[in-house]
Amino acid sequence: MTYVSTNPADLNDVVARVALADAEEFADAARLAKRAQREWAAVPAPVRGQVVANLGALVESNAEALARIVTREIGKPLAEARGEVREVADTCAFFVGEGRRLYGQTVPSEMPDKQLFTFRDPVGVTAFVTAGNFPIAVPSWYIVPSLLCGNAVVWKPAEYSAACAQAFHDLFVSAGVPDGVLNVVFAEGSQTYRGLELALEQRLVDKVGFTGSSEVGALIGELCGRHLQSPCLELGGKNPMVVTEDADLDLAVRGALFSGFGTGGQRCTSLGTAIVHESVHDEFLRRFTAAVEGAVVGDPFGDVLYGPMLDGKFAVSFEKYLGWIRDHHGVHGSTGVGRITGANPRKGFLGDPDSGLFYHPVVVSGVRPDDEVFRHETFGPLVGVTSYRSLDEAVELGNLPGYGLSCSIYTTDPRKVFAFRRGIGAGMVSVNNSTSGAEAHLPFGGNGRSGNGSRQSGGWVLDQFTRWQSMNWDYSGTLQKAQMDTPAI
Ligand code: UN1
C-alpha cells in the first residue's frame, strides 16, 4: 500500500508517496534495531554526543529547506515552521553535553571495605509513534536523547508528514547514525498497534513513546502494561487560560489569539477555554473577538495567523465539533463557521480558499461544563470563553475536563499565580504567556487524560531512556552480610 501525502493548502500538490508497512514489517524493523543496538551502545557516550552535535549543525545549515518542507506538507505558517526547526537545533544543543554527563554514582556502603556504584545503561530498543503537527521537533525530543543514551530507535511518524520525516531521517544518517540504529516505518494505525504488540511479545522493544490522542494513548498504555512496560505518553490537552480582574487585558488577548489559533489550534498545548473574571469578561470577549476577526488566515507561506488544517482527518473530526456549535446560540464567529470557501468567504484571507482545508476561526462564548467543546480537545481553530467569580472556581473549571497538560494565568497579582499553580492539575503553567510554546529544556508533559506523568525535554528525559544498574564490590576478603549483625564468616 502506498500513502500519498498532499499539501493541505493546495490539495493538488503531492508532497510525498511512501510505502506503508504491515505489522510484521514493523516488528522486522524492531528486530533490525535490536541487532544494531549493541554496537551503538558500545560507542562511547561522548562520541554519540558528537553525532548529536553533527545533527544540530546539519539542522542549522538546512534550516530554511526544512522549514519549507514543514510548511508545504502540514500547512504550518513559515514563521512557526522556522521556530520548530530552531527547537530541534536547541534540543541537539542541550543533549550534546549530556553525552559527557551520563553520570553514575559512587555510593558509601554500610560495611567496611565495600564500595557501591550506580551506572546508567541504555534501555535497548525504543519505539516512537509521533504526531505530524510538530513533525520534526516532537520526534527530536524522543529520538535525540534516546540515541544519545545508546538506544536504537524505530520511528513511526504520522504519514501525512512523511516528507518531513524522510528529510529528518536523512540528516540523522548524514550526522553519522549507523545503519539499523534509526529505522523509519510508515504504517497505518491498526498495523502500528499490531506491530507494537508483536514486537513487545517477542521482546524486541524496551520502551515505547507515543504522542497523539488520549484515546489511542490509553490503548498503547494498556498494551505496554500487559508487557510490564511503562511508556512515555504525551496526549491531548484542554488547556485553560485564566484571566483575572487585574490582568493586562491587551496582553491576555494577544496570548489567547496565539494560544488558541496558532497552528490552527492544532497543538496539544493550544488554548481550549479562556476562563475570565466576570468583571472583565465582556471587555475581554469584545477585544478578543475583534482581534480574531481582524486576523489574516490562509496561505501558510504568507504572513498569516494560521493556515489550513494539518490533514483531512483533522478536518473531519473538527467538523463534529462545528456540528455541535452550529446549534449553539453563543457563537462569536467572525464571518462564518466551517470551511472557508469562495461561497463562505472570509475578509482577511490570503490565497485561494478553495484549494485547501481552511476553516473559519470560532470563538464560542458562554461555554459551560456540560458542553462538548468545554470537555473535549477540539484540535482546530476554536476557543471557548466563560466567566468565573472566585479563583477557586476558575481552578475548578480549568481542571474539570480531566486533562492536565498546559495552562496559563494572566494576572498582575503574584498571590494569584501561586494559588493557581498549586490548584491546577497541569504539568505546565505559563504566567502572562501563551499555553503553547514550551522551551526545549524544561520538562514537557501532562497528567490525567494528557499523559501518564512521563516528561520529555531536558535532563529528566534521561530517566526514560536509561535504566539504573547498581553494583556492590566487596574487597574485605570476608563474607560480609547486609542487614545482619552476625560477625563475618
Ligand atoms: C504538541 O503539540 O504535541 O508547546 C507539542 C508547544 C510546542 C510543543 C507542542 N513547543 O507549543
From TrEMBL:
<dbReference type="GO" id="GO:0004029">
    <property type="term" value="F:aldehyde dehydrogenase (NAD+) activity"/>
</dbReference>
<dbReference type="InterPro" id="IPR016161">
    <property type="entry name" value="Ald_DH/histidinol_DH"/>
</dbReference>
<comment type="subunit">
    <text>Homotetramer.</text>
</comment>
<dbReference type="InterPro" id="IPR016162">
    <property type="entry name" value="Ald_DH_N"/>
</dbReference>
<dbReference type="InterPro" id="IPR044638">
    <property type="entry name" value="ALDH7A1-like"/>
</dbReference>
<dbReference type="InterPro" id="IPR016163">
    <property type="entry name" value="Ald_DH_C"/>
</dbReference>
<comment type="similarity">
    <text>Belongs to the aldehyde dehydrogenase family.</text>
</comment>
<dbReference type="InterPro" id="IPR029510">
    <property type="entry name" value="Ald_DH_CS_GLU"/>
</dbReference>
<keyword id="KW-0520">NAD</keyword>
<protein>
    <recommendedName>
        <fullName>aldehyde dehydrogenase (NAD(+))</fullName>
        <ecNumber>1.2.1.3</ecNumber>
    </recommendedName>
</protein>
<keyword id="KW-0560">Oxidoreductase</keyword>
<feature type="domain" description="Aldehyde dehydrogenase">
    <location>
        <begin position="4"/>
        <end position="470"/>
    </location>
</feature>
<dbReference type="Pfam" id="PF00171">
    <property type="entry name" value="Aldedh"/>
</dbReference>
<dbReference type="InterPro" id="IPR015590">
    <property type="entry name" value="Aldehyde_DH_dom"/>
</dbReference>
<feature type="active site">
    <location>
        <position position="234"/>
    </location>
</feature>
